Amino acid sequence: MDVKAIRQMFPILDQEVNGHPLVYLDSSATSQKPISVIEAVENYYRFDNANVHRGVHTLGSRATDQYEGAREKVRRFINAKSTQEIIFNRGTTTAINSVAMSYARANLKPGDEILITPMEHHSNIIPWQQAAKATGATLNYVPLQADGTVSLDDYRQLVTENTKIVAIAHVSNVLGTINPVKEIATIAHSKGAILVVDGAQGVPHMKVDVQDLDCDFYAFSGHKMLAPTGIGVLYGKRELLENMEPVEFGGEMIDFVSLQDSTWKELPWKFEGGTPIIGGAIGLAAAIDFLEEVGMDNILDHEQKLADYVMDRLRTVEGIKVYGPEHRAALVTFNLGDVHPHDVATALDSYGIAVRAGHHCAQPLMKWLNVTATARASFYLYNTEDDVEKLVDGLLKTKEFFGHVF
Amino acid sequence: MSFNNLETLYRQVIMDHYKNPRNRGELEGDALTVDMNNPTCGDRIQLQLQVEDGVVKDAKFQGEGCSISMSSASMMTQAIKGKPVSDALQMSKIFSEMMLGEEVDSELELGDAEALSGVSQFPARIKCATLAWKAMEKGVNEK
After folding, report:
1. How many angstroms separate the CA atoms of A28 and B119, rounded?
2. pTM for this one?
3. How far apart are CA B78 and CA B56, in angstroms?
4. Chain A nearest CA to B114, separation (Å)
5. CATH numbers and ranges of domains, chain B
6. Which residue of A has its CA nearest to B4?
7. What is the distance between the alpha carbons of residues B51 and A321, in angstroms, rounded to a whole number?
8. Is A340 on the interface with B (CB under 8 A)?
9. Are residues A177 and A84 in the same domain?
10. Within 10 Å of residue A251's Cβ, how many Cβ atoms?
11. What ipTM does the predicted assembly reach?
12. What CATH number has the domain bearing residue A325?
């Protein structure tokens, strides 16, 4: 994998920030976009823009072909059985909320249980809290091991006949933990529960095969995988989606409308009320082309090497505390001595290094870690060992700066 | 290696307030209590004010956050103690203007809090600096 050539496809990386070459280490928040994605979106608006599924005219057909072509591309990318199982929406948050609003509210009753973990992003906690409140079901948590992983033995114990929904992140956005979702799916199914996977940090970084994982729902966002913001995907097994009510009602999603009643279009369109995110879907298709050309296995391999490298190098920084397991995705969450993570992030930014600081939309996990906030550096296919060196150098300078004023 | 850019923000006096906060703790007796947090980053402050006859007699704070938010709370309590409420509110306005990088022309002195003027060059940190001032405004406006 030629990272130097890849970097040239991302014009944004070629700039100075605060007098230093930009080192972008915040791809878990959002990834940068290659020229091919930017051009695909631009070309759509420049030459083909029209609404889909209704125009008799030529532009309408072009837009529809590209939009539905993007759906087929996503289907192939995650190996879903059918394009009927690929629902376009705004992103992971919307996707999980759709399952919680529709499936959970229709299928849960008092006494039922939803099982999640304390490492979830807020978008995989709050929809379930709300569904539990609305239905009288109970929200339970699988405990975390000391290193920030989950134990399958705990799942075997905690998934019972009462458990109806199990939800977990494929990859933790804070700890970098890669969760054994395939094994968890088997355990959930053995008791008749379904598995919902928050794939926001999974799909961008590794080959995902939803049939192999055998998850029931899998949610992810385009903007974390080189596509524009505003486009995301909910994958769901067809037999589940068939029996679910739409969450949004209006144009595009109906079959027949009378004064008092209406019927819905077939899958997947019954879940896509309103004019869909056409430009976003076309951008997502271009992003998938880019990722496939590089190769998902190559990306994973590159990122695993970077993850090992950054863990090794951070160990040399005295006073740093890194959270999460040794084997992890390419992201590191840490604190630097007593320096508050916001101060760390501001200091690193002054050296051109972009990291995230705060609670990372995971307040229960911050509580579990017994911290109020952390800093996080996250990596993607365009990052290099040189970026890691600059991070380490920036951290040493940050320590020196605060050591000297404190 | 140059710390110039960072030194605009983290002046000595700011670090002194962070390390040795003034008016940190709890007030005894009747006091106005305001809790405020910055949900995007997790900084939180509890501010207590004792207001008598329209004058801020005492002010204390507790909380957790970065050096900017905590030093600003320390400086703010120092600045408003003994001042009429109307002055305290005016000072908050002046402080906000200073955060926007505007020229401030007023007879009211912000004291040490003026050292935070450099924050205006770090837009992402303005909310850290204004948290305590917003809490103070909320407290006296609710009274």
Report:
1. 27
2. 0.94
3. 11
4. 19
5. 4-142 (3.90.1010.10)
6. A350
7. 43
8. yes
9. yes
10. 14
11. 0.87
12. 3.90.1150.10
